Every structure is written in structure tokens, then in C-alpha cells.
Amino acid sequence: MDDQHFAPAFFLGANTADGFFSLSNEMLADGDDVTLYLLKGGPGTGKSSVMKAVCAKAKEDNIPFERIFCSSDPDSLDAVLLPTLHMAVCDATPPHPFELKFPGVCGRILDMGLCWNAELLKREQEKILSLSRANSSAHAGCQRFLSAAGRMQAERMQIALEHTDLLRVIRSAKRLAAKYIPAGSGESLVTQRFLSACTPKGEVVFYDTLTSLCPLIIAVEDDLGAVSAAFMQTVLHEAVRKGQRVIACPDVLRPNGTPEHILLPDAGLAFFTSDRRHPAPDTAERIVRGRSFADTKALQEYKNRLSFYRRAIDELCGGAVEKLERAKLLHDRLEAHYIAAMDFGKAEKMKNELLEEVFGESLFL
Fold first, then answer.
1. Does an H or E element contain 68, and which?
2. Whole-number Å distance between alpha carbons of 67 and 194
3. Are 11 and 193 spatial neighbours (Cβ–Cβ below 8 Å)?
4. Mean pLDDT within 222-230
5. Does the residue 94 lie in any domain?
6. 3-state secondary structure of 269
7. Does residue 110 share a domain with residue 173?
8. 315 vs 303: CA distance, rounded Å
9. Is a pLDDT exceeding 70 seen at residue 28?
10. Whose CA is closest to 166, among 236, 228, 253?
11. Given 294, 328, 355, which residue is the final one in a domain?
């Protein structure tokens, strides 16, 4: 896909230090005007294939779209957003909490389960239930690892906070905001997206989304978190004050905290937290060194403790990835049972009916 028709990629849900964290209510800014097509059905019933077809058709018709991927399988789509059509096609099986606010008025449910042989699945009931329970257990284990990693990161951040000149951080952030953030064209709008997530493939960062939406990147290099948190909070305030459209990206280790990254797509500008889990791209225009705002002599007294926390976070995040690898393996085995019971001829018909309904007018352009 060329840059002119680039479709941003994000996560709307992720395993975090606070459990599974969903941003589904942030999906589209239109609220009640959004028409939702909710896909129901087990693993392997063709939901992701339907959404890939929606992406292909939107690209063919030059209709802007946004791809939402699954953090449990970053090769699989969770949703496709079509903001100019005020539509979205979503996987609505757990843990995705998508529901129709006005059934029959703004969207409908497509039950892919109508395409499977229930008798075949019933015969595999014990295997399916066992795999499903094991999959849930693996996800719970991932969240325990991330919860522990989040507590460790909070300890590191607290030590750093006690030895950081926050007033200097705020002044620096305001200077850079004044220099780089232009006035927006209207009232500010803040939406949330995960730019990165813990996945079976490790930490996945959508760098293509970052660099395509925001060619100008200001990186805040800060592994301890205190400087970047104060910096991003200040930048967020300034961006809103200037009327910019903001995409605020939470951190999986503290999803309820200050955004980890701030994207201003209308300005082509991003403020990106660079650390061990996701270093800044080489194209960054400017790098703010977090250590320059810290009392490094005082922090030296905590060197061993901070190193211990860092190693522990690395191990815990690694454990979370291993649990997700296990969950993905179990999911694939579950998927095999459903694939064997599917009538993909029926599924193909449902997909084509959906495409005609979503893109009906554009089919005749």
C-alpha cells in the first residue's frame, strides 16, 4: 500500500498490567451515528478473512480505513474502521466488548456460526472445552506477569520522580510544543489507541503507522518513566489547547496513566517515548535525553536496585510473551476444530453480502 493510501494500524485491546484493557468505546468519534457490523462465531470461522476483504475493497475504492489488529495474534484483524462511511466491521466475540446500541437501526450482527456443522462440534465438545479453558488460563498468566512488571516499573518511576527536576521537564516540553505544534483547525479531539502491545511475537510496535502519520518525530529517551510521563502530560495539554486532533497511546504497563506516545496526525507530528521495549525510529527529528533532567549522582545510589527492577521487568515481560505464545498455540488447535466443521461456501456468501451492503454505492462508481 503506498503512502497516499496508507491505512493506519493500531490495537484497541491489549493485555496490560491492569488486566485486559479495551478501548472499544474510542473506536469512532461519531458515536451514535456509526453503523456497526458485528461478526460472531468461533475461531477459524472466517471473521478475519471478512475484514481483510473489507480492507481490500476500501483500498480499491480509495476509501480511507483504519486497521485494528488483535494483540493475541497480531496477524489477525479485530476490526476495520471506515470513518468517512461512519461504519465499522468488528470481531464481536469475547473478549471484544462490541455491542449494538440500536439493533436493526445502526448495524447488525453477522453470525458466522450459521455456517458450521453443530453436530460435528458437539462431538468434539470435551476437546473444545478443554482447549478453551487452557487458553483462558494462559491469558490470565500473561496478565499476572504484566501486573508484576507494572509494579516493578512503578517502583523505578517513583525513584526517578524523587530525583528529577520536573519543572525543567515541563518548561522543556512547553518550549518544544510552542516550536513544533501548530494551531489546529478547530476544537481538539482526543482519541486513544494502543500503538504497541505485548503479543505472542513479543512487543509489537506499529512503526509504519507512526512514521506514515507523523513524519516529524520528537523522541523522549527515558527508560525510567518519570521524565516522559511529565513531558507527555504537558504536550497533551498544549496540543489540546491549540485545537489539535490527538491520538493518545497508552502504555501496557500503566494503561490508566499518562499516554506513552502522542500522535498529532493533522500536524504530521509525534512525541514518542523511547525505551528498552520500543526504541525511537532512526528518523526521529530530535531526541530529548531524560537523564539530563535527573540528579544522576543521587540516582547512582540506587544503581543496583534500578538494575534489579530492569532485569525483573525484562524477565516478567518475557514470561508474558511465553504465555501468549502458549495461548496462540491453543487457539490454533481450537481453530482446527471449527475449520473442520465450517461450510465456507456459506461463509463466502455472507462475506459478499456484507461487502455489497457496506460498499453498495461505490460498487457502481
1. strand 66-70
2. 12
3. yes
4. 96
5. yes
6. strand
7. no
8. 18
9. no
10. 228
11. 294
Q: How many domains does the chain have?
A: 2
Under a CB-based contact definition with an 8 Å cutoff, are residues 97 and 86 in contact?
Answer: no
Question: What pLDDT band is residue 98 in, cutting at 50, 70 and 90?
Answer: confident
Q: Where are the alpha helices (DSSP H) in the chain?
A: 47-60, 118-123, 125-161, 166-180, 207-213, 226-241, 296-300, 303-340, 344-358
Query: What's the rounded mean pLDDT across residues 307-321?
Result: 97
DSSP secondary-structure letter at 356?
H
Which backbone phi and psi does 261 adopt, to 5 degrees? Answer: -135, 150
Q: What is the mean pLDDT of residues 75-90?
A: 92
Q: SS3 breakdown of the chain: % helix, strand, coil, rounded to 5?
A: 50, 25, 30
Percent of the chain with pLDDT over 70: 95
To the question of pTM greater than 0.85 for the whole model, the response is: yes
Residue 303 lies in a domain: no
For the beta carbon of residue 263, count every other beta carbon within 10 angstroms: 29
Torsion of CA 19, 253, 82, 56, to 10 degrees: -100
Top pLDDT among 322 and 100 is at: 322
